[in-house]
């Protein structure tokens, strides 16, 4: 055995070439598509979507990848097949005219096989080979393999013919999908096809509590990494959509940009700037506390800034929400008309949780919103347990955060302490949690809003009274009276009393000021009188002093004069 030297140049290893299916989500799970030039088995029970998935593979190949395809059906006739998929927008007749696809129906009757003797696939190879060569096909579908081998009961011959078919398809270098019906305890009825196929995809259609869920699983994929979980998929008017999200790694980018809540006072409670873009927000509270109003205000604010918002409503119709929001001064209709706001309303029981997740994922991918609202998530409990809802929401939050989409959930909580702390178990998952509580006092009910958590920012720990008016939502600082926190009428009465006291105090102060002024004037008057009296006394005293000085001066002059006279000077 020869070993490669560590210093020898590295060889570039060839990876398995893959053929993209064009089916939304499936190529992400398979990391590029199904193995190119090899057979892939799609198995499942009746009605699980095998034929639809395989024909979408053929149509997408012809229309998106310029790879013509042959669809060989052993059950449905070509015209029946074309009619069945016309509702999905696939015009098979036109594609056939353009030689992009070729539909071929092969009828196999067990009685005729017995009459004509030994059964083998030589005739099929000739017919299929001609179809492939006639349009230069790169893709082939055989639907379903059970009908092809319906005439064979000998397991040895069956196994040999099956291997021969797969080897022939590989030799033709066509990417093939073979559909097979699920057996009892095996992936297919014969239990052989899954062993000779390079890739096996299992489709499942489960019914639980009268709600259906379609799931897809990659059972086997030779030579390639692939997702191993069960992935929900949706069949709607646009074909098949597989949700590739199960559990994403926590390495998504984060933004420091802030988005306003639409309520100025609530922004102030969140450092004055609102939520982080791409964060997840939970608004919980008892019935009638205004959760939908908060969500609609948030949607209105996003649309006002020309950002797209999609609103998933599980309780009210869009018309109800638009009408009801008029009562608080919000007009959402212009945003709906301009395409900035989209409502997607349905009862939770329309689909299973997984199907809801697929539908939400598909809508978000198509609409590309900046803000998503789910109102309320509590209703999803109707189609799954709390843990199921939590699992679904974890995947949804992971997906939205990876797309930097801000999401707001509303949740109904019962009026007890336990539920306030759980709220479908998602309160620990979200980045911000607003709780709206009833505050009963003096025979009336008012609302109090708390910011229970807000990751990555300083937030107010104060309770605000949440007031819904015909001009919007407002948060009022609660009034701390002698009896504690006062809200509603009690707060207004206390505020009026306080304002009255202020007026009375101002009046008393003014009266005191006037009294002081009068006192000052009286004192000033007295001071002026005393000053005049003082000046009068001063003048009198000064008068005596001046006279005395004058007398002394005159006497001195007289004495000097007398002395001069005596000496006859």
SSE order and pairing:
Layout: E1 18-19, H1 26-29, E2 34-35, E3 39-44, H2 50-64, E4 69-73, H3 78-86, H4 92-97, E5 101-105, H5 110-116, H6 122-135, E6 139-143, H7 145-148, H8 155-171, E7 175-181, H9 193-196, E8 199-208, E9 211-221, E10 230-236, E11 239-242, E12 258-259, H10 264-269, E13 275-276, E14 280-285, H11 291-304, E15 309-313, H12 318-326, H13 333-337, E16 341-345, H14 353-367, E17 371-375, H15 386-402, E18 406-412, H16 417-422, E19 432-441, E20 444-454, E21 464-469, E22 472-477, E23 479-481, E24 484-486, H17 488-566
Parallel strand pairs: 3-7, 3-8, 4-5, 4-6, 6-7, 14-18, 14-19, 15-16, 15-17, 17-18
Antiparallel strand pairs: 1-2, 8-9, 9-10, 10-11, 12-13, 19-20, 20-21, 21-22, 23-24
Helix pairs in contact: 14-15
Describe the fold and architecture:
This protein is an alpha/beta fold. The N terminus is likely disordered. The radius of gyration is 45 Å and the shape is rod-shaped. The chain has three domains: 225 residues, P-loop containing nucleotide triphosphate hydrolases (Rossmann fold, 3-Layer(aba) Sandwich), CATH 3.40.50; 215 residues, P-loop containing nucleotide triphosphate hydrolases (Rossmann fold), CATH 3.40.50; 81 residues. The chain is 41% helix and 24% strand.
């Amino acid at each position: 055995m020869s070993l490669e030297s560590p210093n020898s140049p590295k060889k570039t290893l060839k990876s398995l070439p893959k053929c993209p299916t064009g089916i939304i989500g499936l190529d992400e799970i398979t990391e590029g598509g199904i193995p190119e030039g090899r057979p892939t088995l799609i198995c499942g029970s009746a009605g699980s979507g095998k034929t639809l998935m395989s024909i979408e593979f053929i149509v997408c190949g012809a229309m998106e990848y310029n790879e013509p395809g042959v669809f060989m059906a052993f059950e449905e006739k070509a015209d029946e097949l074309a009619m069945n998929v016309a509702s999905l927008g696939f015009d098979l007749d036109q594609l056939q005219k353009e030689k992009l696809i070729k539909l071929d129906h092969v009828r196999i009757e067990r009685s005729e096989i017995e009459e004509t003797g030994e059964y083998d696939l030589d005739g099929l190879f000739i017919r299929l080979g001609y179809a492939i060569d006639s349009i230069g096909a790169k893709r082939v579908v055989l639907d379903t393999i059970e009908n092809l081998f319906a005439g064979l009961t000998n397991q040895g011959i069956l196994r040999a013919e099956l291997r021969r078919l797969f080897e022939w398809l590989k030799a033709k270098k066509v990417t093939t999908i073979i559909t097979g019906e699920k057996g009892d305890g095996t992936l297919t009825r014969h239990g052989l096809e899954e062993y000779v196929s390079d890739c096996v995809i299992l489709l499942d259609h489960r019914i639980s509590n009268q709600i259906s869920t379609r799931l897809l699983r990659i059972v086997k994929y030779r030579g390639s990494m692939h997702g191993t979980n069960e992935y929900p998929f949706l069949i709607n008017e646009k074909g098949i959509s597989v949700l590739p999200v199960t559990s994403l790694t926590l390495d998504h980018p984060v933004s420091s940009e802030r988005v306003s809540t639409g309520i100025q006072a609530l922004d102030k409670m969140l450092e004055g700037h609102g939520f982080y873009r791409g964060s997840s927000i939970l608004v919980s509270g008892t019935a009638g506390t205004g959760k939908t109003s908060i969500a609609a205000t948030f949607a209105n604010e996003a649309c006002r800034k020309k950002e797209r918002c999609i609103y998933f409503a599980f309780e009210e119709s869009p018309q109800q929400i638009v009408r009801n929001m008029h009562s608080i001064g919000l007009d959402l209709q212009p945003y709906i008309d301009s395409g900035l706001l989209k409502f997607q309303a349905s009862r939770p029981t329309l689909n299973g949780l997984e199907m809801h997740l697929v539908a939400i994922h598909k809508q978000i991918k198509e609409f590309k919103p900046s803000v998503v609202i789910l109102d309320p998530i509590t209703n999803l409990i109707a189609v799954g347990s709390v843990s199921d809802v939590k699992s679904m929401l974890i995947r949804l939050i992971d997906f939205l955060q990876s797309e930097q989409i801000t999401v707001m959930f509303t949740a109904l909580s019962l009026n007890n302490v336990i539920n306030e702390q759980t709220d479908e178990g998602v309160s620990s998952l979200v980045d911000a949690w607003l709780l709206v509580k009833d505050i009963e006092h003096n025979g009336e009910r008012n609302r109090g809003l708390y910011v229970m958590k807000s990751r990555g920012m300083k937030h107010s720990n104060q309770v605000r009274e949440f007031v819904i008016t015909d001009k919007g939502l407002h948060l009022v600082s609660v009034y701390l009276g002698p009896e504690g926190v006062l809200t509603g009428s009690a707060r207004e009465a206390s505020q009026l009393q306080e304002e009255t006291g202020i007026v009375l105090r101002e009046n008393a102060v003014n009266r005191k000021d006037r009294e002081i002024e009068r006192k000052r004037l009286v004192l000033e008057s007295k001071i002026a009188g005393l000053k005049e009296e003082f000046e009068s006394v001063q003048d009198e005293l000064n008068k005596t002093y001046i006279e005395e000085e004058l007398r002394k001066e005159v006497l001195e002059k007289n004495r000097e004069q007398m002395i001069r006279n005596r000496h006859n000077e």
